[in-house]
Design brief:
By secondary structure, the protein is of the alpha/beta class. The protein has 3 domains: about 80 residues, Orthogonal Bundle (Multidrug-efflux Transporter Regulator, Chain: A, Domain 2), CATH 1.10.1660; about 80 residues, Methionine synthase domain (Methyltransferase, Methionine Synthase (B12-binding Domains), Chain A, domain 1, Orthogonal Bundle), CATH 1.10.1240.10; about 120 residues, Cobalamin-binding domain (Rossmann fold, 3-Layer(aba) Sandwich), CATH 3.40.50. The chain contains 13 helices and 9 strands. The strands form 3 sheets. Strands 6-5-7-8-9 form a 5-stranded parallel beta sheet, with helices on both faces. A hairpin with a 2-residue loop joins strand 1 and strand 2. The structure holds cobalamin. Cobalamin binds next to helix 7, helix 8, helix 9, strand 7 and helix 12.
Length: about 325
């Protein structure tokens, strides 16, 4: 699908958008007429030309209706999202600019500036995630190719890693395993969660992409993680992810899951664990609350952390060296 430019107007035709998102063109026109959605630039001949941001709005409208919202309600939500993202729009747009310039360092500078201006939570939830979605639309509309998507994705992941490494040493006693489903390669949501959790003192074991059930349960047992979060982004990988969750459910960890594979409520029936939804800050609070020590237990934790005898799992333990003869 190629972005067409007529004269100076760049963008996708209504037919192209209709094919891309699977929304009939008359429906797109009626949303514009009734709710003022995705009012686009027009060519000299009056033809609509949709930019990536407008296509992202129409995608959100489609997804909200898929999630079971009534059209009018979904339209309000899309408009609110458009307004609430206003202050962040130039930062979100930077994802497309960097795809054009192929200058990864530029994204690092933009995200540092964004964090300084809005704070880490907003930089991640209101800029990085929408920016990644925008790259998805640009990739799907042919506006950027896989190399540009990869460059922007890698630059985003490097920035998250940098923030994590410069962040606080975890002070919470319990730890959390973060894993993708067995078929999933989408890790940015998980890596964003790791940074947000670390900011609140939680240490995480990030396993990343494509983790089979046996490796997941082995990691949970080895780390004695008090909580485990499993993410799947593609519907076709949901069944394998549920099998992973069922395996993890047989360990003592508290189980959570998320990702676009579980957006529709019908996909979450009989799935073990707690669904974390789409708001990562709320998700961090849900997990933190679940791991908070029971009343009265906190003093023991404090006592434990302050007592030199019981090092926290994150303090540097002397590595036991065994020489040839096996004696340490
Ligand atoms: C980067 C990317 C890739 C990279 C991933 C690299 C990496 N390490 O992450 C690569 C190149 C590997 C990739 C591969 C593929 N991709 Co891809 N990818 C993307 C892209 C552009 C960004 C993904 C992202 O980070 N999004 C940001 C996420 C985190 O935000 P979000 O989607 O809004 O998620 C919300 C919720 O799900 C939830 N959430 C998500 N994660 C988490 C985590 C936690 C802990 C919590 C609490 C909540 C949560 O909250 C979020 C915010 O509200 C998306 C576009 C998009 N729209 O997302 C396509 C996209 C997801 N990919 C897509 C496809 C089809 C593929 C491939 C099948 C392509 C192919 N033919 O090979 C493969 C499949 C790989 C696999 N086996 O999983 C499609 C999926 C369509 C669909 N049916 O669902 C998309 C939507 C692109 C498109 N426009 O069509 N992809």
């Amino acid at each position: 699908m190629v972005t067409e430019s007529v004269g100076s107007v760049r963008g996708l035709s209504i037919q192209g958008v209709s094919e891309l998102l699977g929304i009939p063109a008359p429906t797109i026109r009626s949303w514009e007429r009734r709710y003022g959605l995705a009012q686009t630039a027009r060519t000299g001949g009056g033809h609509r030309r949709y930019a990536a941001t407008e296509i992202a709005d129409l995608r959100l409208m489609r997804d909200e209706i898929t999630r079971g919202r009534r059209t009018a309600e979904a339209a309000v939500l899309v408009r609110d999202a458009a307004t609430s993202t206003q202050p962040y729009r130039s930062f979100i747009q930077a994802f497309l600019d960097v795809a054009e310039t192929m200058n990864a360092r530029q994204l690092d500078v933009v995200l540092d500036h964004c964090r300084d201006q809005f704070g880490l939570d907003d930089a991640i939830c209101r800029v990085i995630l929408p920016g990644m979605r925008l790259i998805g639309v640009a990739w799907q509309t042919g506006r950027c190719d896989i190399s540009q998507e990869h460059l922007v994705t890698n630059a985003t992941r490097s920035w998250l890693k940098k923030v994590l490494s410069l962040g606080p040493v975890p002070w919470q006693r319990e730890t959390i395993v973060l894993s993708c489903g067995p078929g999933d390669l989408h890790t940015v949501g998980l890596e964003s969660m790791e940074v947000l959790l670390a900011q609140r003192g939680w240490g995480c074991h990030l396993l990343g992409e494509r983790i089979p059930p046996t490796a997941l349960t082995a990691a949970i047992n080895r780390t004695r993680a008090a909580a485990t979060i499993v993410v799947s982004h593609i519907a076709s990988h949901r069944r394998a992810t549920v099998a992973s969750l069922q395996a993890a459910d047989r360990t003592s960890t508290r189980l959570f899951y998320a990702g676009n594979a579980f957006l529709a409520a019908t996909t979450r029936t009989a799935v073990p664990g707690t669904y974390l939804g789409e708001d990562l800050i709320q998700a961090v609070e849900t997990v933190s609350r679940a791991l908070e020590p029971a009343p009265g237990e906190s003093d023991n934790v404090l006592k434990r952390c302050l007592s030199p005898a019981l090092p926290s799992p994150w303090s540097l333990r002397p590595i036991r060296r065994t020489d040839q003869r096996g004696s340490s």
